[in-house]
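Follow-up to my post from last week.
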Amino acid sequence: MATVSLSFSPLPAEVRTARLLAVVLARRSGLPEELLDEVRLAVGEACSRAVAVHARLRSAEHVEVAMTEDDRGYEITVSDVGDAAAVVSADLADFAADVDDEAADGQLPALPSGLDLAVVGGLVDDVTVSPGAAGGTIVRLRWQR
Amino acid sequence: MDLTLSTRTEGDATVVEVGGEIDVYTAPKLREQLIDLVSGGSYQLIVDMEGVEFLDSTGLGVLVGGLKRVRAHEGSLKLVCTQERILKIFRITGLTKVFPIHTSVADALSSAG
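User reply:
Got it. Predicted complex:
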């Protein structure tokens, strides 16, 4: 098992640093090429979400990302300082219903909050959100090789 | 790769050609561009995404915001995109039903609405 950790200031520009690194390591871990776009997008969404959480809380604490390769696959955790109990993942079925209503009444549905995590959930089969041992929230993404 | 934007007029429509990555870092630039166009009276927009290498939910938010703005003036915002990896995020979120998505600028120009 090998882990690479990245700790970054909660700035939008650093989200792409995390994305690039996550994809390099995913490729090296032997994930098939067709999954690399998913890794790129899912890690980007998880890190964008963390940066937004820190901005909302006016926290300059670093976002922590750990990328681990093991026998069976590749796992990424993204940790932020937000309250895990307050994490929202949009219900895309509800949103889809709103979109269908739009056809009838012409009113565009508002993008739901938690769209970032909903996209992650739509891409990655194995996603968990849990409280960190010392507070904060950990979003864990896992891909099987 | 950074975001690149260029605009041109084609008949009644304004084509915004977007290249590079639309993410939390670059989305504000696209938002400003769309706001500037609508403020300047361009309400028939075609966003050509064939050069886009990455799009996340922040980018989707900007496109939906643009659509709301042009609709307030009875305009339209059409997308040009044939890339599977970009189309996928529209499908996951159900936004394929909100945006008219075309395979070429010519196709977007010739379609009604």
